[in-house]
Amino acid sequence: MKTKSIMIVMTTLILCLATPMVWAGKLVIKGSTTVLPIAQKAAEAYMKQNPDVKISIEGGGSGNGIKAIIDGSTDIADSSRFIKNKEVALAVEKGRYPVPFAIAYDCIVPVVHPSNSLCNLTTDQLKMIYMGQVKNWKQIGGPDSPVVVISRDTSSGTYEVWHEKVLKGEKVFPGALLQASNGAIVQAVSKNKNAIGYVGIGYLNKEVKALKVDNITGTPETTLNGTYPISRALYMFTAGWPEGDTLNFINFILNPQKGQKYVAESGFVPLY
Among the four 51, 107, 183, 254, which has the fewest Cβ within 10 Å? Predict the structure, then answer.
């Protein structure tokens, strides 16, 4: 974790010192649905300031974004997890050298239907739910009704972090319903009083009820100070050191007075 933090600080400092290059063209951004609203807001603002630059953005999950960096079909890959060693190896085989930039922080929050009486779950209880060991809410102090488990698909960076920090490497049980995005999970949970899901903090709304984890509420403060147990950085990856419009856009989104305000507007946690 220290190595990642040092690398992030170094790349941020170098970017801040870099002289923007005035190249016009088109940027392609693909990947995480968690990072998607940040990228969309920042891109809209950037294109207003730079009308000669066109930016196309596509979701599909962190894994798909990183695959696009590896195969050369995107300029920037959005990811809600860090790149895996095997993905780096695949990229290097093709002559591409992924460079990570942390652009925000996030925490993953379990959500239930607003009618559910529970307000807090422990990480152990969440693990048992997602392994299929808790089948009725009354087993953990909730209503006498079956638990409907909703999870993300395996291409999701949000799933990867949940798999690591909650499931501790165990598999989600086969009866879980899989959704392709944070928004799809919110919609599914809001329509099913027995459901539980998990989303990035920026996707919380009144249609679902956010639960505490280990009696800690997921907030910007608990994310930054590390007390909330399911926190993470959000990344943008480039295939090698960025140049031209790619460099300018990364500089824009890292700027405290520019792109970072769109991180906050999207409901996520700015770097500074």
Answer: 51
The residue to which tokens 């693990």 are assigned: 127
What distances in angstroms separate CA 191 from CA 114, 121, 186, 231, one per listed residue? 10, 21, 9, 27
Residue 272's pLDDT band (boundaries 50, 70, 90)? Answer: confident
Whether 174 and 95 share a structural domain: no
Give the pLDDT score at 79: 97
Q: Residue 121's domain spans which residues?
A: 107-224
Q: How many domains does the chain have?
A: 2
Is residue 119 located within the same domain as residue 52?
no
pLDDT in tens, 244-262: 999 999 999 999 999 999 9
User: Under DSSP, is residue 271 helix (H, G, I), strand (E, B) or coil?
Assistant: coil
Gyration radius of the chain's alpha carbons = 19
User: Does residue 181 belong to any structural domain of this protein?
Assistant: yes
Query: pLDDT band at residue 142, thresholds of 50, 70 and 90?
Result: very high
Mapped onto helix, strand or coil, the DSSP state of residue 104 is strand
Q: In the predicted model, what is the mean pLDDT of residues 209-223?
A: 97
Instruction: Return d(Cα 79, Cα 158) in angstroms, integer.
Output: 9
Kindly state whether residue 85 falls inside one of the protein's structural domains.
Answer: yes
Give 94-98 contacts, CB < 8 A, sequence gap 24+: 94/70, 96/69, 96/70, 96/72, 96/239, 96/240, 97/239, 97/240, 98/66, 98/69, 98/237, 98/238, 98/239
Decide if 189 is inside a domain. Answer: yes
| DSSP symbol at 173 | P
CATH of the domain at 138: 3.40.190.10
Tokens of 146: 């079956």
pLDDT in tens, 219-244: 999 999 999 999 999 999 999 999 99
